[in-house]
Amino acid sequence: MKLENLTWQLKLLIITEAEKEETLSAEQLTDDEPLFGPESRLMLDSLDALQICVALKEQFGVRLQGDREVRKHMMCVANLCDYVQQQINE
Q: How many Cβ atoms are within 10 Å of 62's Cβ, its own excluded?
């Protein structure tokens, strides 16, 4: 899968699963902006993270487990894309 296509799919997945379509579009979401925390425009929370994890498993067969792993790989779209790409290639 092309990285640009995967990045786009992940942006859509994040916006849709977190129900942020009215706040921000996938086009507006940059690859390196924070998804969680006070600097985040999306202001995602733990429930959003759970929903995104479930969708990742369903759509890509990729599993994220444990708070530390979720925080590490969901800091931004670029990190998540790298992780998903790595898991798909294994």
A: 19
